[in-house]
Amino acid sequence: MQRGANDFLGTIGETIARNRPYIERARRFGALGLAPLGVLAAACGTIFVPLPWNVLLGVLVFGAAFVVHRMHEANRKIFVARQVAHGLLAIAEDCLKLLSLEGRIMCISEVGGQLIEADHADDLIGVDWLALWDGPDARRAFERAKAGESTSFSGACRTMNGTLKWWTSTFAPVYGEHGRVSAVLCKSRDITAERNLIDELRGNARVQKDMEDHVDAVFWTATRDFRELLHVSSAFERMWEMPMSALEADQTAWSQSVHPEDLPALRDEMRTAVNTGAATQSYFRLCLQHDRTRWVRADIYPVIEDGAVSRVVSVCVDATDERERLQELHRLANTDSLTGLANRNAMMDALVKRCEALAPFAYLFIDIDRFKSINDTAGHIAGDAVLRTIARRIAETLPDGAVAARPGGDEFTVILPGSFDQESIERACRKLSLACHRPIEIDCKSVTMTCSIGVALYPEHGRTPEALFISADMAMYAAKRAGRNTFRVFGDREKDDLARAHLEAQLHGAIREKEFVLHYQPQYRVDSGALVGVEALLRWNHPQLGLLGPGAFVPVLEESALIVEAGHWVIREAVQAGSQLALALPQACSVALNVSPKQFRDPRLVSVLRHAIRRAGIDSNRITLEITESALIDNVDDAQVVLSNVRAMGVRIAIDDFGTGYSSLSYLARFRPDVLKLDKSFVDNIATDAMVRTVVEGVIDLAHKLGVTVVAEGVETQEQLDTLRDVRCDKVQGFLLSRPVLLASLMMRTDAEDAATVR
């Protein structure tokens, strides 16, 4: 039995000897103590020998089981530690390496292998890592880590492919048995991109400094509230002529040199840039020593970050030469090259400012009388000399604050500030007239000139530059009409002329916008009261004044060429209305329309009339042209040709306003009209004046003998109508019977209603 126990102990001993490496490894990692095994060994050697073999066997079995359990626990912890280490190496973004005490790579992370550009991380095992570096920095840091110190350094080394990279490396000592450093852990980060960026920024900063030192522009950066200057370039000292130390001591020192008149506008532009997020520009003056001034142009740029202005950058350049050139260009653009006075543009600008100021002033228009004779007899050089002399005299005559200009030709204009009555205006104009009238010596000849002056007062004669210019110009022409060498203030006659000119301008728009309309005044037979025709009368549907009769605008039409264009429109509209009237009221046999003298002389009259008749599809004998005596006798031969062409179309001819002109009764036989229209001046007195009645009766008898129909116009009383019936007048028209109405209203009338109205 004793021998069997010894054999078993031998077996246990062999087992312990066979597993001793595991026991030693567990002890090194601190996972298993050796006390139980010592106890077991001691027991095997001495204490447990005398014990009974069964007790000893139990102790040995227990001890063996305990040892095996502790070895399994140690292996499990080692496995977990290895997995954790492997995971950390896999996710690390830096190059992780374990270096031996000789500096060789024992293991390296996969990322590290990629950063060093190795095909496989395992290829780097055993590589002398310290040999990859140039210089002593890597080895010094490594030696300090071997000595137990955590260190770091930065440097450059080449990868396996020869690429030069910059790294920052950190060393940590790894402790082994007995607390001694057994290896060095190294973490290296690739900082090549950062290093290149730093080099680039350094280069940019160097370039920026070189530029700031050699460029005259001032670059500055400020916070968005402008309370702090973040950067100011060195050119500030040259432009502001102020040391940078003064700006460092007081950041508002720059503004103290800005001209007081310009500083508010500059600050407004700076605030605008911040508030709008858009670049702005401002010009201001710097007040320098010795009463010198320097113009500066500031371009202000807001810097936007995260949707908001974070700071403001500005570039200031010397704009003195630029402003001087602009001022010279402005002077040239606003100065009359011949006389040196202001030109038309400058005068209009001055008028605008005066009108905006709302202060009274006088505007004078001066025209040199008979100046054309100087150019024609003495030449343009002499004429220019006269203009220069008069311009100088006008400028010398004017008080302070006045402005003189030469708009062109031989015309001058003057602004005289202040209020003026008739006496003060007369005094001012007399001084100007005397200055112009003094003899002028030209090429040993003495020339004496006079001038006509027109005066317009603000605001009485106009509140705008254009209105004042027109008023003064019209007053000047009034002075011309008064015999020249005098002055006129814009008055009632000029107001009427101005109103007519304004009306003419409006009439152009009336034709373009189709504001004209036709009203039709019915004509009735005297004997039966039947509606037999109408006369087309022009009206103007004014957009502001409403419906205007012909007396308000036809005279202006007749004085201008517009009467011809308007007359053509009347022909087309009236002929078309005659076609509609013929269908609605067959007994209304004619539509009469007036033709002005200018229209009668227009060569297009016949063709326009013919085209209108064809387009309307109306019988031409339903159309009557009413022509005044004056239009016929101005040129009898031409008038006869026109009448022949009109009559050849079948259109009837009426002589309008008969008895008011100077024609002879012989013209009735020569022109052979179809209708005579007695003027209203005869009709007005026909019931009360026997002589007028006799004349009218004689005209009607003569007309009937010539086969001419007589129409009396302007019938307003029953007595007039009765008298006209007694003298056998054929047709009548007037307010007694009907006012002019629109075509639609006329066609709604019945024959019975018309007859009842006449009776």
UniProtKB/TrEMBL annotation:
Residues 359-492 form the GGDEF domain. The keyword Transmembrane helix applies. InterPro entries: Biofilm_reg_signaling, EAL_dom, EAL_sf, GGDEF_dom, Nucleotide_cyclase, PAC, PAS, PAS-assoc_C. It comes from the Bacteria. The keyword Membrane applies. CDD domains: EAL, GGDEF, PAS. Residues 500-754 form the EAL domain. Residues 151-203 form the PAC domain. Keywords: Membrane, Transmembrane, Transmembrane helix. The chain crosses the membrane at residues 29-49. This is Diguanylate cyclase.
